[in-house]
UniProtKB/TrEMBL annotation, chain A:
<dbReference type="GO" id="GO:0008982">
    <property type="term" value="F:protein-N(PI)-phosphohistidine-sugar phosphotransferase activity"/>
</dbReference>
<dbReference type="Pfam" id="PF02302">
    <property type="entry name" value="PTS_IIB"/>
</dbReference>
<feature type="domain" description="PTS EIIB type-2">
    <location>
        <begin position="1"/>
        <end position="90"/>
    </location>
</feature>
<dbReference type="InterPro" id="IPR013011">
    <property type="entry name" value="PTS_EIIB_2"/>
</dbReference>
<dbReference type="InterPro" id="IPR036095">
    <property type="entry name" value="PTS_EIIB-like_sf"/>
</dbReference>
<dbReference type="GO" id="GO:0009401">
    <property type="term" value="P:phosphoenolpyruvate-dependent sugar phosphotransferase system"/>
</dbReference>
<dbReference type="InterPro" id="IPR003501">
    <property type="entry name" value="PTS_EIIB_2/3"/>
</dbReference>
<keyword id="KW-0808">Transferase</keyword>
<protein>
    <submittedName>
        <fullName>PTS system IIB component (L-Asc family)</fullName>
    </submittedName>
</protein>
From TrEMBL, chain B:
<keyword id="KW-0598">Phosphotransferase system</keyword>
<keyword id="KW-0813">Transport</keyword>
<feature type="domain" description="PTS EIIA type-2">
    <location>
        <begin position="4"/>
        <end position="147"/>
    </location>
</feature>
<comment type="function">
    <text>The phosphoenolpyruvate-dependent sugar phosphotransferase system (sugar PTS), a major carbohydrate active transport system, catalyzes the phosphorylation of incoming sugar substrates concomitantly with their translocation across the cell membrane. The enzyme II UlaABC PTS system is involved in ascorbate transport.</text>
</comment>
<dbReference type="InterPro" id="IPR051351">
    <property type="entry name" value="Ascorbate-PTS_EIIA_comp"/>
</dbReference>
<dbReference type="Pfam" id="PF00359">
    <property type="entry name" value="PTS_EIIA_2"/>
</dbReference>
<dbReference type="InterPro" id="IPR016152">
    <property type="entry name" value="PTrfase/Anion_transptr"/>
</dbReference>
<dbReference type="GO" id="GO:0016301">
    <property type="term" value="F:kinase activity"/>
</dbReference>
<protein>
    <recommendedName>
        <fullName>Ascorbate-specific PTS system EIIA component</fullName>
    </recommendedName>
</protein>
């Protein structure tokens, strides 16, 4: 399973999202590799991704994709991440 | 995992900013004061938000201001600006911002350990409140787990 986190610069928020999503997945019992990337590379990086985690601002720019796009509001709230990931994977 | 350096020169307590641009400019100025970034880095951080929107407001009350690694970054560094009057970044859920965390990363590949260290601190949901009400740079360093030598 491939999960991609997307933000503007590919550092900072997508990195926070990667770290916290890995934590959330572990506690859900999933094993996934998560890649942090910036929005300009979403076409290539997320081409074979199952899930894209991002902020609301990037949904439009991500456009059409086969991946589930999950919008995260509070990047530090692991219970929000856990619930949204569980809904997408369950 | 090492937190990027957060010296007292990079901490600005009880600052006033008229709007989000001014708040991000203060966070850039703090990174420049500590030697982590050149003064031009502030403009790059502001441009990120102009280009992509207020996504840097990553939790209620907290903005993570940053730009890409590049010539404006001297070395990895953090800055913290707390605002007496919260400012709005235009975020649908997490406004208004009371704490601006500035992040300068020198190298794209090596940033994740540093970001993970930052995430560890803020996974404690009281950290933002405690930072917002801190009254000294030493107190901010304590909350961030940095020894104030």
């Amino acid at each position: 399973m491939k999960i991609v986190t997307i933000c503007g610069a590919g550092i900072g928020s997508s990195g926070v999202l990667k770290v916290n999503a890995e934590r959330a997945l572990r506690s859900l019992g999933f094993d996934a590799s998560i890649v942090a990337a910036d929005i300009s590379t979403v076409r290539t990086v997320a081409a074979d991704a199952q899930i894209i985690l991002t902020s609301a601002e990037f949904v439009e720019a991500i456009g059409k994709t086969n991946a589930d796009v999950i919008v995260v509001v509070n990047l530090f709230d692991t219970s929000e991440l856990k619930q949204k990931l569980n809904d997408a994977l369950g | 995992m090492p937190l990027p350096p957060l010296p007292q020169s990079a901490i600005d307590i009880g600052a006033s900013a008229a709007d989000w641009r001014a708040a991000v400019a203060l966070s850039g100025a703090a990174l420049a004061r500590s030697g982590a970034a050149k003064p031009g880095y502030a403009g790059e951080m502001i441009r990120m938000i102009e280009d992509h929107g207020p996504y840097v407001v990553i939790a209620p009350g907290l903005a993570l201001a940053h730009a890409r690694p590049g010539p404006q970054v001297i070395t990895n560094g953090l800055s913290i600006v707390t605002l007496t009057e919260p400012v709005s970044f235009g975020h649908a859920h997490n406004d208004p911002v009371r704490v601006v965390l500035g992040l300068a990363i020198a190298e794209g590949g090596a940033h994740l350990a540093a970001v993970a260290a930052v995430a560890n601190i803020f996974n404690d949901s009281s950290a933002i409140d405690r930072l917002a009400s801190a009254t000294s740079a030493e107190e901010v360093q304590q909350i961030m787990g940095v020894s104030s030598s």
